[in-house]
Amino acid sequence: MSDTEKNIRVSQIDFGNAKQSLKLESVPLDILDEGLIRVRVEAANINPSDLLSIRGIGQYRHNHQTPRVPGFEAVGTVVESNHTKFMLGQRVLVAASGTWQKYIDVLPENLFHIPLSLKSGYACQLYINALTAWVLTTEITQLTKEDVVIINAGSSAIGKIFAQLSSSLGFRLIVVTSKPKDYPYSVTHVLDAKINLATQIQRIDAPKPNVAFDAIGGKVGSQLSKTVCKLGRFINYGTLSLEFYEPNFFDFIKNQDIKFNTFFLRHWENAVGSISRREKFMLMLEHFIENQIQLDVDRFVPLHEVLSAIDLIEDESKVLSGKVVLTIK
Fold it and tell me: What pLDDT band is residue 1 in, cutting at 50, 70 and 90?
């Protein structure tokens, strides 16, 4: 690699609005530290967690320090390595903080081999949402055809993954979405998020869920809990509402003997270790490819137009059909 090669990156100088806290930089590439692998990034997607970390909301202000490079997952090619398992030219998924840049130096445990045939928009989505959905369904709850699962945020990227896994893994799924008539996947039932959920389940004589996956928290999550049968399970894996559960939430959970858990991918990673995490990822990747699990892309946006990409995502008048993916040339 040339000594004059530059790294183009998005630098977050502080927490707050993206227009004030982000800037595009061109900086010299440092000498690669021993033990790290340099990856030339092709594409990096924009997740809700990226936007929360830029604004410094909740746990993200405590877990990250500025200045920093945003982004938590990407796809790219190995361009420099002293590690025997990662050779020049190999295509990899990067599962590490700081992916919104042309080159990223990564520990080997945060890289995963992927086939050359996978398109970049698909490959860069194979970690945060995909692995979360896979671990929740196959390890945390170990779902079978006897299980009835209810999810909110059904039209989100991870909601669409749950819908496809219900078909490939065989569990029954009830989806809650604000646009039930437009839901693109065939599932057991689709409920309208704007109408009382328990009432809808009774009206259509749907089976009562024994497992709930809550991505929203707050009042919406509290309403979801009212649909779960006695002795069921309720797992919160996100707080899109940025609100606490209603005061009576935990009383209801306790009275119904519903087992309540939270799931954060980062905590699961630390608990199982790098070897188990890699094995789980490879099982997921094989299943996704074999069962043609879709990971939708709405559009590709060049890295230098990152502010326009964020504006597009945050514009509530826009309806996106998939992820907005940053590309680096």
Answer: low
